[in-house]
Amino acid sequence: MTEYRGAGVPVSCPDCGAAVYPQRDQLCSQCGFPLMFLRERPGAGAQGFGVARAPGEQDAPAPAAHPVLLQPVPQSQQPAPNEIGCPACYEINPATRIRCQRCGIELRPARPAPLTLPPMPKAKRSKAWIAVLAAVLVLVALGTAVTIWVLNRPESPEFAAPSPSAPALVPVPNAAITVTATAEDVELDKYGVVKTLDGRLDTAWHSGGQRIPTNVGVEVRYVFNRPVKLARVNVVNGFTRSPVDFTNNHRVKRMKVRTDAGEKDWSMADKEDPQTLEFDGTPTTKVTFVMEDTYPGTKFKDVCISEVTFDEFT
């Protein structure tokens, strides 16, 4: 067995039986057994090392001897890829070792304990998007409603059909009617009272509110060229060309309807749909509207009526 200078006498490892040098190495190069726990056996001579010390047992006094110094391995010996060099004694160790097989120093630093981070705080969700979404939905709904209204708005008024059990009714032809008003807009071709008989909802009579103190008392008179057995008077209130035109101008709120047989009070709804006032068929040669109250407009002072028709019994 080859001996190394300063290594002392080799002995057998108590754990694996490999040859070890307790005076040189602190750990068995084969199994890692701690060689510093081997005690000197008096009188054992060359085999003075080899008996493990019992727990609590003190080493016997070692005979005086010259201290054995470990000889450092030259730094020129570079470790292979599967090896690791000791930073203290430069011993070349297998890369799998934790401590140096020669001097016992740790070959790699201990790994730090894993750091446990606290849970991330939950971000508070802003509810502003709910208000934005609601506003968008409202705008979409309004746009859809306006589009449907424009597409489905009839070009001429649709008045209620008579009951099947009622006497037969026929419309009074517009050619048999003459209409006048006590107040009109200066632009008669656009807003004259004859526009109430043209069968269109995008035209209307305007009272010329800027020229008169008030719309109360203004009269619109329809005269027939023959006696008519009046059954119904049908009116489209306000200027129904558009929702804006409707609210910009005044609408009839209450008026008297006079015939040759007498008069009736008519409270009209503030809406664009046709409205009907029933009569008993008593013959008359005229129908007169007398304004008593109006719904206010947001921009103009004119009271408007878009369309008027008359039905008579046959």
Features:
314 residues, mainly beta, nine-stranded mixed sheet, 15 strands, disordered N terminus
Describe the protein's topology.
Layout: E1 11-12, E2 19-20, E3 38-40, E4 49-52, E5 83-85, E6 92-94, H1 128-152, E7 169-171, E8 177-181, H2 188-191, E9 205-206, E10 219-237, H3 243-248, E11 250-259, E12 262-267, E13 275-278, E14 283-295, E15 303-313
Quick overview:
The chain has 314 residues and is mainly β.
Shape: rod-shaped
How many helices? The count is 3
- Computed over alpha carbons, the radius of gyration is 58 Å
Q: Which residues form runs of ≥5 with pLDDT under 50?
A: 1-5, 42-48, 50-55, 59-69
The N- to C-terminal Cα distance equals 144 Å
Class based on secondary structure composition and strand pairing: mainly beta
CATH C-level of the domain at 169-313: Mainly Beta
According to CATH, the fold-level topology of the domain at 169-313 is Jelly Rolls
The overall pLDDT average reads 82
Beta-strand share of residues: 25-35%
- CATH superfamily label of the domain at 169-313: Galactose-binding domain-like
Question: What's the CATH architecture name of the domain at 169-313?
Answer: Sandwich
Helix percent band: 10-25%
Question: Mind describing the biggest β-sheet?
Answer: 9 strands, mixed
Seen as an oligomer or otherwise, the chain set is single chain
Q: Would you list the SSEs in sequence order as H and E?
A: EEEEEEHEEHEEHEEEEE
Compute the number of strand runs.
Answer: 15
